[in-house]
Design a protein that fits this description.
The structure is a single chain. The protein has a five-stranded antiparallel beta sheet with strand order 1-10-9-6-7. The protein has a five-stranded antiparallel beta sheet with strand order 2-3-4-5-8, covered by helices on one side. The chain is of the alpha+beta class. It contains 18 helices and ten strands. A hairpin with a 5-residue loop joins strand 6 and strand 7 (about 550). It has helices at about 5-10, 15-75, 85-110, 115-130, 135-160, 165-200, 205-235, 240-260, 265-270, 275-355, 370-380, 385-420, 425-430, 470-490, 495-515, 590, 605-615, 620-635, and strands at about 435-440, 450-455, 460-465, 520-525, 530-535, 540-545, 550, 575, 585, 645-650. About 65% of the residues lie in helices and about 10% in strands.
Amino acid sequence: MKPFQPAIALMNRLKYPQKFAAISCLFILPLSLVTYFLISEIQTRINFAAKEIIGNSYLRPLSELWVALPQLKILRDSNSIQNSSEIISTENKIDNSLSQLKPVELKFGKVLGTSDKFNQLRNNWINSKTNRYSNNKSAEYNLLINQIHDLRSHVGNQSNLILDPDLDTYYLMDATLLKLPEMQRILAEIQSISQSIKIHKKVTPLERAELIILLGMLRDSNSELMDNIDVAFTNNPPGNLRPKLTQTLNLFTQNIKKLTERVNPLIDSEKVPQPDDYFADAEQNLKQSSLLWNQIIDELDFLLQYRIDGFARKQILLYIFIFIILAIVVYIFVGFYLGLIQTISSLSGASKQMVEGNFADEIALDTQDELTEVVKSFNNIAVALVKANQEISQLNHRLKTENIRMGAELEITRKIQQMILPKDYELAQISGLDIAGFMKPASEVGGDYYDVLQSKGAIKIGIGDVTGHGLESGVLMLMVQTAVRTLLENNETDYRKFLDTLNRTIYNNVQRMNSDKNLSLSLLDYQEGTLHLSGQHEEMIVVRKEGAIERIDTLDLGFPIGLEADITDFISQIEIQLHSGDGVVLYTDGITEAENMENVLYGMERLCEVISNNWQKSAVEIREAVIEDLQQHIGEQKVYDDITLLVLKQK
């Protein structure tokens, strides 16, 4: 006991909330430190991959320069008047690449430390372009090529590309930074030698030797490239590389192999090489190398983003895990404290009743701690009365707990419904449309559904109404929202298959729930002023620029979702063209069937009139005008159905 005496003395001087706070701090401090280091490590890896993506952004225009400069040198060396237009075109291509590189440099130059090298490269290019007919063209060309090579190597080092930890991305970076640029350099030199042979109409021993060396180097580089990319294919968890790169890679490597096979006749005989063939094959392979380089860099960006997303998910899971652990700890601490207070309170009340002589119930405590012995002494006084009181207390406790649980479940479901509704900033990001939505459930949990989703330039808009309202309707609404988003994310564009798959999913779930719920649902596909409508729901209101109203009946466009297993034969679609100022209004019957104190319905005609009178305003203002007029109509009357409104206006 003596070693623990200081701790006992400290605990005896503290109340239980203070004890819990002290113990919690001792747990939270090391946990926070470990969590901080873990999150910092994940963030470091995210930053590492993000910097690699920056490097790829810089390399794209730089690669175009690397390919274009040798072509310019060949055109200038030909001394042909016919090549003047090609020279100007190639110079313009280089200017365009530098123009594309400039904003990248402005954005990432400080991060990569490339500003001085970029400015030197640009200035030397301007001088070279000005002195295109000077006698020092070869030196200027070599200077530019060396500067590009130096800048590319610098970007690779500073953007972590050389240090990548994964095999698939490492070998892709090796291909884009080293292998393909080196092969492009060799191909450009083969073109240059071929052109020299063609101009002088003879081949010197030195040129033959250079061709043999270059073709040998090209063959070795091609073999290494194939081996390295094969390793990347094998070690590619997302599985995106082989289907995306195989065709282009095979075509490039086969053509390189075809070109390098010409080295044997050069070695074994004095046969004069055909410069046109070498030049044409090298030029074709250069084009294919650029195509392969671009495809590899695109897949590299995908893999890096895939890695960043993975780390981000780990961060989120870590946050969730920590939150759950802390919540459990707090919950247990609170439970322990409340349990202790409950025990003390029970003992205190029992002692008072015993003093007064009125105590007749047995005290029942669901505890296994030291206070149990104290409780037993009270239980020995009046066992029978305690048992009866225990049963009543337990029953009341269960009823209270069940009510709290059901209330919490309804509140959680309601909050989830509100959370998945499209946010204002999401609607504002949709180009071409001014959109405003509104949904108010009649009870804690509603059965109305609306959503606006955007994917690959297309916009999917949905509105529906589950029969009834309450927990079952709310759950079914969440199922529909999830199914619609899943089908959209899986790029399902066939409206008939879309609605049929959605119906079968909901129908099977409804059957499993042993429920009689179903819903009306209309889906709209919008793209560049064209609107396709399918599915059965309330009438869709089309409003033209000047406020003219067109009512579109959806009765023949579908069938209630979840009512039958197969509704394929009932699904149809219509197309509507929207021009600037035109739009549509979607709603549920909670608006048109809303009653006032005299039981008069709000009605379709009044809704159309309010929309038409306010159509020159923004979508938000139109929504507010309708909701305000509806509230005036309802007055003090109870709202019996969910109210949902969606306004879309072509900009």
